[in-house]
Write a structure and sequence with these properties.
single chain; 292 residues; alpha/beta; Rossmann fold; 2 domains; 3-stranded parallel sheet; 3-stranded antiparallel sheet; binds glutamic acid; binds zinc ion; nucleotide-binding; ATP-binding
Length: 292
């Protein structure tokens, strides 16, 4: 199998130093293994994606010296595949229709009988389970169009009872230094992640579902990305297992921080690659700044 990495930016703002690090590292790793480096545009959030940011991504990456095969995969072209996977999960009885808004979730999660502060997962408050009874009944109920759908994590975990299903190989590091063979349990999934949204009503998909389907479609063997997504990888492994997709190796890298140790936000335009370039810096200066 060819070693393949990817860089998967969202065209919702300028690329900054953190993106440059991620893209260059993914390319360097592919090159070191005589593999391929691919690009993917993650533009499912059409309320925030803009064509000029996409154009800027191509410009910035080319300036950094990166090349990638054409055509570039764009998530907005792949809604039919996301929908097909959702229908499959629905037929397996793994999804339920959720009508809660943010406030409902906050109130249910902080109700006195729940005890203590709500637990935060990769997508915010761990879902308190309000709509979990609204199941597909293993496909007996027709697939609801235009609805928010959540993964029933308990059912998914039950389906994955074989040992080794809840595991992946990490060649970088998680936030607590986790590396190597990472195992997680059903208990971890239920308490720290919960019933995540797989289909947003406004998108017809979600980051988690799309990233898993696209990494598989592009034949990605090594997912290189920031450490902030380490916990989300557990969701991705669950989805890969229930959908019968290969589980790639993960490499979660350091987050590039500013002088005060704060994470670089996307809107931190002062650190935009384009700004450094306008200031006369060279691509090799960017490499040096991110420690490559
Ligand atoms: N589009 C995501 C981001 O820009 C990429 C996440 C990933 O690499 O899995 O954060
Ligand atoms: Zn709900």
């Amino acid at each position: 199998m060819t070693y393949r990495t990817r860089f998967a930016p969202s065209p919702t703002g300028p690329l900054h130093l953190g993106h440059a690090y991620s893209a260059l590292l993914a390319r360097d790793m592919a090159e070191a293994h005589r593999g391929k480096f691919l690009l993917r545009i993650e533009d499912i959030d059409q309320s925030r994606a803009r064509p000029h940011w996409e154009a800027q991504i191509y410009d910035d990456l080319a300036w950094l010296g990166l090349t990638w095969p054409q055509p570039v995969m764009r998530q907005s072209d792949r809604l039919q595949f996301y929908n097909a996977a959702l229908r499959k999960l629905w037929a397996l009885g793994l999804l339920f229709h959720c009508t809660c808004n943010r406030r409902d979730i906050q109130e249910a999660a902080s109700a006195p009988q729940e005890g203590g502060a709500p637990i935060m997962g990769p997508d915010g408050i761990v879902y308190p389970g309000t709509c979990r009874h609204r199941h597909s009944q293993d496909g007996a109920v027709p697939f609801p169009g235009n609805a928010a759908l959540r993964l029933d994590m308990a059912r998914a975990a039950t389906m994955l009872s074989q040992p080794e299903a809840l595991a992946f190989l990490e060649t970088g590091q998680g936030p607590d230094g986790q590396t190597g063979h990472i195992r997680f349990t059903e208990e971890d999934l239920l308490t720290t992640i919960g019933d995540v949204v797989l289909c947003r009503r406004d998108m017809g998909t979600s980051y988690h579902l799309s990233v898993v389907l696209d990494d598989a479609a592009q034949g990605i063997t090594h997912v290189v990305r920031g450490r902030d997504l380490f916990e989300a990888s557990k969701i991705h492994v669950v989805l890969q297992r229930v959908l019968g997709l290969p589980v790639p190796t993960y490499h979660h890298h350091d987050l590039i921080r500013d002088a005060e140790g704060k994470r670089l936000a996307k809107r931190d335009d002062a650190r935009a690659i384009a700004k450094y370039r306008d200031d006369g810096l060279r691509p090799e200066d960017i490499r040096a700044m991110v420690g490559l």
